[in-house]
Design goal:
Length: about 150
């Protein structure tokens, strides 16, 4: 096993993939929550319950998972010194975009919290396809390294 991580590298990689799963689960859930959330009246009991659920998903699952995926991913990148490789640069661009998508979900949550509903249900359902498509390409880049 090469690199400064030595044999620990496989543990870091396992941790990376485990938190990728948590992150993706959260990213799939959030816009779906938004769709159901938007169906209830602003200020209603149901509205407050959705705000609470979204807040917990953000604080307990999404934010910590994203941070850990980044920390472990960067450790793996320095360990393997992949900076000059096309698959890694392409993966990096996509994970930055995915992190931006995460940022968008947080921003949208804050709007819902204020009683705003800027997007339609159809638009939210379409946006919900983004993380799945991005994850499929990211995994192909990371595993096959074309
Ligand atoms: C957030 C920034 C990320 C960075 C910097 C990063 C970096 C890396 C690096 C360098 C490796 C290769 C480890 C090695 O074998 O030497 C790796 C493996 C992997 N990454 Fe990431 N990653 C990130 C996010 C993600 C995301 C969001 C996904 C999935 C949606 C993902 C899925 C994977 C998978 C499945 C592997 C295992 C590949 C294999 O061993 O065959 N990564 N990551």
């Amino acid at each position: 096993m090469t690199g400064f991580l030595g044999a620990t590298m496989l543990w870091i990689k396992a941790g990376h993939v485990i938190f990728v799963i948590f992150l993706m689960a959260g990213l799939f859930m959030m816009p779906r929550f938004f769709v159901y959330h938007q169906q209830c009246a602003v200020g209603s009991d149901e509205d407050r319950k959705w705000i609470e659920r979204e807040d917990r998903l953000r604080r307990i699952i999404l934010n910590p998972s994203l941070a850990i995926v980044w920390v472990f991913g960067l450790m793996l990148a320095f360990n393997g010194n992949y900076w000059g490789q096309g698959w890694f640069i392409a993966k990096l661009v996509l994970v930055i975009a995915l992190s931006g998508y995460h940022g968008w979900t947080i921003g949208y949550f804050k709007k819902l919290q204020k009683g705003e509903r800027p997007l339609t249900e159809k638009q939210l359902r379409l946006l919900n396809e983004v993380p799945g498509a991005a994850a499929a390409i990211i995994v192909i880049l990371a595993v096959i390294r074309p």
